[in-house]
Design brief:
- The protein is built from five helices and five strands; from the N terminus they run ββαβββαααα.
- The chain is of the alpha+beta class.
- α2 crosses α3 and α2 crosses α5.
- The mean pLDDT is about 90.
- Helix content is about 35%, strand content about 15%.
- The protein starts with a strand and ends with a helix.
Length: about 150
């Protein structure tokens, strides 16, 4: 099937198998921040933004991207580096394997939720699994990041 969409601001057009997952396609285009973790849509490692909303690319067909915009961590490098600094400052950046999907969700949450409570943050990020941390450092980093954004507005 023929697809055409924007990937990190660049128009891509390709012929893909009808059952090809978006995860496979974006990785074939050099977007290696999108990772395969559980392959059951439970870990969040494969999160990308599809028209601005976080989706799990391991369970999204590539043909669903046709006519849309897909953004991976490679397309949000500046924002990701900024938030990544907050993770490091709070000791929440350990092995880093889960970080790309986690960061994509935090950046999407920042745009979607206005001044979220701690409970709203936890609910929004419930699908992101990390085997290294107890999530407390990540939660502190998110709160400080969002507070810093609010103060600087």
């Amino acid at each position: 099937m023929q697809i055409k969409f924007k990937l990190n601001g660049k128009v891509v057009q390709d012929d893909v198998a009808p059952d090809m997952m978006l995860l496979e396609y974006v990785r074939s285009q050099g977007c290696f921040s999108v990772k395969r973790g559980c392959e059951t849509a439970n870990c969040g490692l494969c999160t990308v933004l599809l028209d601005g909303k976080p989706v799990l690319s391991c369970s999204t067909l590539a043909v669903r991207a046709d006519g849309k915009e897909v953004i991976t961590l490679e397309g949000m490098r500046k924002e990701a580096e900024e938030f990544g600094g907050f993770l490091a400052d709070e000791g929440a950046e350990q092995c880093g394997f889960c970080s790309p999907g986690f960061i994509m969700n935090v950046l999407a949450m920042e745009k979607e939720l206005d001044d979220p409570t701690e409970e709203e943050i936890k609910q929004y990020l419930a699908g992101n699994l990390c085997r290294c941390t107890g999530y407390m450092g990540q939660l502190r980093a998110i709160k400080k990041y969002l507070h810093g954004k609010k103060v600087n507005v």
